């Protein structure tokens, strides 16, 4: 890590190939978004379009509507999955080709409307401030329960707002967890309640790590170094309930504002142990819902994005679809 960047600007964090953050607030992102436009997918018939949520601040979403059955009619309203992409809170986009492809597959397999949220990134929009974007997206979806002027037609016409779920991958799973916790303390409005929470390779740090693989241990060290940059003023990964919801001073998981939880991990993901501990803590918290876990043997963090057509990635999508079908 260098101390001085171009022009004498001090470097706070240098993650080669990913991001460089300067003390002045300047940010350089090297992992570019491979933008994919909204479209109708030829293989699945899933249609997508982009819609604003907070136009004044740039928060938006890409909505995915599955194709109707061969009869031409849906035969009823469709569940909704509000989804958050990963990227360490500071990278990625709902409009990236890999995220776009995964959202299409989820919509098709689950027969659900997927609302993939483009939230503002840290460190410009630091943690926990960006959680506000997630909450605004959930409330925006809930507002469609009353209809009226300005509603998004796909949600107004096809969404079953009695079956609203939240989920995400990696940092997006962290965001989804905190959104579900907030839903346990506050009303979404319009009588809408969260049904289920889907955590894909959740980005939780802190505590003792049993990671023995050197590459995995190196990744964890980089993530620990990144955390105070994206979350200024943090007490550290062990004690901060924002990145470690199992920390001693974290809010009781019994307050989680949904009825069912699914946690998916990769067998070689260095954060897999945190996902497993989350399930254990949730079961022992006094929370009255149902929790399921699923592991992809031999697979790493985010494998469904890097190898989307692999047998393991397709199996993970089926597990999520099956879980949502019971909500």
UniProtKB/TrEMBL annotation:
Highest taxon of source: Eukaryota
Species of provenance: Urochloa decumbens
Protein name according to UniProt: Alpha/beta hydrolase fold-3 domain-containing protein
InterPro entries assigned to the protein according to its UniProt record, in alphabetical order: AB_hydrolase_3, AB_hydrolase_fold, Carboxylest/Gibb_receptor
Annotated ranges, domain Alpha/beta hydrolase fold-3: 81-304
